[in-house]
């Protein structure tokens, strides 16, 4: 049997814990010295990716029964990367797709490093396929050459005379053949080719084709094991009473009533709250309901959302940190024929994944530990748990499970919920495996959020409608400032995840200045699907649309005039406009209440344009159709690319139409899906996805479909009604009859 290599060990410094477990996270963060800021620029790292060595035994296992198991180093939270990654290796291996299986890799950054993040094993920034492309091609090709060499040796024939197809190795001259499983054991003993010959794209049988997803059946029949399904012998369940306001701490608690609840085993204080441990989830929840906690809120965030946004507006009036600048925009605006001003506000948003956070942790008899969860930053999670438990990281084994969504929530620099599970186990003396469960309400009210953000833009046009100057000010809380990654990822006070998509705009604006203010409120923030692009794309694309209309130029033509140096963006824009029949009556607003709007944006190295077809009237918007064009380089599995864009529309639509997380005196008001309602099937528009043919290295698509939806819809509403709705979610109540 051709086997996966046993994981190597690594160590991390220990640290104390405080607040949101930042001490332990700092221990983990010390490992991540090479974490790349610009996760999306996968194509810029092409040379680095091409230099990776072939390690077939780390990424593929071939059994005597001919099964080909591809080891997946990334978390699959529904985006289908297990299928995409397996496709890459299986094609170079020439495997029979019917025999291909997948298995999540153990924690081992030496083998399973995300090549676009530095020395860390993790999933994020739409990098899974991009960073694995050459690595898995080489691993598959190397394994193929090893199988061929084993056959050539056994049959005493030249290697060049052997062919491989669909899991079978053949020698036509002697009419001999063998299945992979028959050769796996002998092949495993051979040297690993470090520079195997890769296929020419014309030889691909799986890459670029629609192959069935490997997880569809198991997720349909219920056999897929999610983290929430984990059941270890003797396991107990823990839920935590978290403070109602961010920054509050436990002053004291009365657990007498909790301990009387049937099934409750213990109540323990931890730095993030009070944990109730019980025989099952229901008992733990009832025990928490009976718990009486007194909170110290002297350092807690106690403002409401409106007050925070009002402070942002005042802050924007002062000079900020210059993130990017070219030309003299002040002079350009002063001498402009017309000047436009606009402001855009964005609320806090919850990740709201279908599977709430949870993790199971147990101590083995030899003093080692096992963690079962939807693990997204394995290196950080392993090191953080180890620091809390007082062992080296090699003593903590991670078992990555299927995750029911994440959208960024499971990838925290502090490994917060993993750290919480480890803390509970330690506080309870590791008497049994502990399954930490966050309820939906816990997840909605006590987690991390997409930052609330405010943009203010002032732009000038000359008599011909050309931009003479653009001044842009943004206020929002940085995700990285105050985290273990601040020293590595924040440069001169600028967090790239805050300003991406605006400070680096591809539009050829001759005079441009982007300033940022880093807010300091007490609400914990985190990347949310497409991170900074969630707000920068909207502000940029709606403002560009306003300039086009002010200049009396078609919005598509206006954008193209500014994208001469961005051919791939121009390409998707042209394709989306063509497929949407841009220029029709709906686009010009001749059909009452209907309109087309367009937006185009690059994020994570991928290019996406969307045209939205909407019907708008008094207090209502109906999104009828979305036409999308995407350029992701080589589309490894076009069906998954389309599915991810369709999913991005469904995910983002509710945030365009209604979703927001609001604080009242510091307390989150939206506690479940009744108040934070996901997109309904009845609301879903028809979504058409057109993929630009390309031979460029593949990039990602998990996130890039999100940023363009809101501005496309907003611009379509203007086309339909003549009214601009700039803030998100769109203020439907302000729409007047047309």
UniProtKB/TrEMBL annotation:
Family matches, as PANTHER family: ALDEHYDE DEHYDROGENASE
Keyword Metal-binding: no
Pfam families: MoCoBD_1 (PF02738), MoCoBD_2 (PF20256)
One GO MF term attached to the UniProt entry: oxidoreductase activity
Keyword Hydrolase: no
Superkingdom of this protein's organism: Bacteria
Keyword list, A-Z: Membrane, Transmembrane, Transmembrane helix
Organism encoding this protein: Methylobacterium radiodurans
InterPro entries hit by this protein: Ald_Oxase/Xan_DH_a/b, AldOxase/xan_DH_MoCoBD1, AldOxase/xan_DH_MoCoBD2, AldOxase/xan_DH_Mopterin-bd_sf, N-heterocyclic_Hydroxylase, OxRdtase_Mopterin-bd_su_IorB, TAT_signal
Protein name: Twin-arginine translocation pathway signal protein
Transmembrane spans: 20-37
Domain called Aldehyde oxidase/xanthine dehydrogenase a/b hammerhead: residue spans: 221-299
């Amino acid at each position: 049997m051709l086997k996966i290599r046993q994981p190597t060990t690594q160590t991390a410094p220990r640290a104390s814990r405080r607040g949101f477990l930042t001490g332990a996270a700092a221990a983990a963060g010390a490992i991540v010295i090479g974490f790349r800021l610009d996760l999306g620029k996968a194509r810029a790292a092409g040379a680095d990716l091409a230099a990776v060595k072939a390690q077939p035994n780390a990424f593929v296992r071939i059994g005597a029964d001919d099964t080909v198991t591809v080891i997946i180093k990334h978390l699959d939270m529904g985006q289908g990367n297990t299928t995409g990654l397996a496709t890459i290796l299986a094609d170079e291996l020439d495997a029979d797709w019917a025999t291909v299986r997948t298995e999540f890799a153990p924690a081992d950054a030496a083998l399973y490093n995300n090549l676009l993040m530095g020395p860390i094993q993790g999933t994020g920034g739409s990098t899974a396929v991009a960073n694995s492309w050459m690595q898995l091609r080489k691993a598959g090709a190397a394994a193929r050459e090893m199988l061929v060499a084993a056959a050539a040796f056994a049959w005493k024939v030249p290697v060049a005379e052997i062919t491989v197809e669909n899991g079978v190795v053949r020698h036509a001259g002697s009419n001999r053949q063998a299945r992979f499983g028959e050769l796996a054991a002998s092949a495993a003993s051979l040297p690993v080719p470090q520079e195997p010959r890769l296929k020419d794209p014309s030889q691909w049988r799986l890459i670029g084709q629609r192959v069935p997803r490997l997880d569809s059946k198991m997720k349909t029949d219920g056999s897929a094991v999610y983290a929430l399904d984990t059941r270890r012998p003797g396991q107990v369940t823990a839920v935590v009473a978290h403070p109602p306001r961010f920054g509050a701490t436990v002053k004291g608690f009365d657990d007498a009533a909790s301990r009387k609840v049937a099934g409750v085993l213990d109540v323990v204080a931890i730095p993030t709250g009070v944990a109730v441990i019980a025989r099952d989830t229901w008992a733990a929840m009832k025990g928490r309901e009976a718990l009486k906690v007194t909170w110290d809120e002297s350092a807690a965030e106690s403002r409401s959302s409106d007050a925070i946004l009002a402070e942002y507006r005042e802050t924007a009036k002062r000079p900020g940190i210059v993130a990017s600048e070219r030309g003299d925009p002040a002079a350009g605006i002063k001498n402009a024929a017309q000047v436009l001003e606009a402001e855009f506000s964005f609320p806090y948003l919850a990740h709201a994944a279908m599977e709430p956070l949870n993790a199971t942790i147990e101590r083995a008899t030899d003093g080692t530990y096992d963690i079962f969860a939807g693990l997204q930053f394995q290196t950080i999670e392993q090191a953080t748990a180890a620091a809390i438990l007082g062992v080296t990281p090699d003593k903590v084994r991670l078992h990555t499970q299927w995750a029911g969504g994440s959208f960024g929530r499971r990838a925290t620099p502090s490994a917060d919920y993993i750290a919480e599970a480890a803390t509970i186990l330690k506080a309870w003396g590791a008497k049994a495996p502990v399954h930490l469960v966050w309820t939906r309400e816990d997840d909605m009210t006590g987690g991390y959020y997409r930052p609330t953000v405010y943009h203010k833009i002032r732009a000038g046009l000359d008599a011909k409608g050309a931009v003479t100057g653009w001044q842009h000010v943004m206020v929002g809380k940085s995700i990285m400032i105050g985290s273990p990654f601040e020293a590595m990822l924040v440069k001169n006070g600028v967090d790239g995840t805050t300003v991406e998509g605006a400070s680096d705009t591809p539009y050829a604006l001759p005079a441009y200045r982007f300033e940022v203010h880093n807010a300091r409120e007490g609400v914990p923030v985190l990347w949310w699907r497409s991170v900074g692009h969630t707000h920068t794309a909207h502000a940029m694309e709606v403002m560009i649309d306003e300039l086009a209309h002010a200049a009396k130029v078609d919005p598509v033509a206006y954008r193209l005039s500014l994208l001469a140096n961005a051919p791939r963006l121009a390409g998707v824009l042209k394709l989306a406009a063509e497929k949407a029949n841009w220029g029709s009556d709906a686009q010009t607003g001749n059909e009452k209440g209907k309109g087309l709007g367009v937006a185009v944006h690059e994020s994570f190295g991928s290019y996406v344009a969307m045209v939205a077809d909407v019907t708008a009237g008094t207090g209502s918007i109906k999104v009828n159709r979305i036409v999308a064009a995407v350029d992701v380089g080589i589309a490894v599995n076009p069906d998954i690319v389309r599915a991810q864009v369709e999913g991005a529309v469904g995910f983002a639509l509710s945030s365009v139409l209604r979703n927001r997380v609001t604080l009242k005196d510091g307390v989150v008001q939206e506690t479940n899906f009744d108040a934070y309602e996901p997109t309904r099937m009845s609301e879903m528009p028809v979504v058409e996805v057109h993929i630009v043919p390309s031979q460029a290295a593949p990039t990602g698509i998990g996130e890039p479909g999100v940023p363009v939806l809101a501005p496309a819809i907003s611009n379509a509403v203007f086309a339909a009604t003549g009214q601009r709705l700039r803030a998100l979610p769109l203020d439907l109540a302000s729409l007047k009859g047309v």
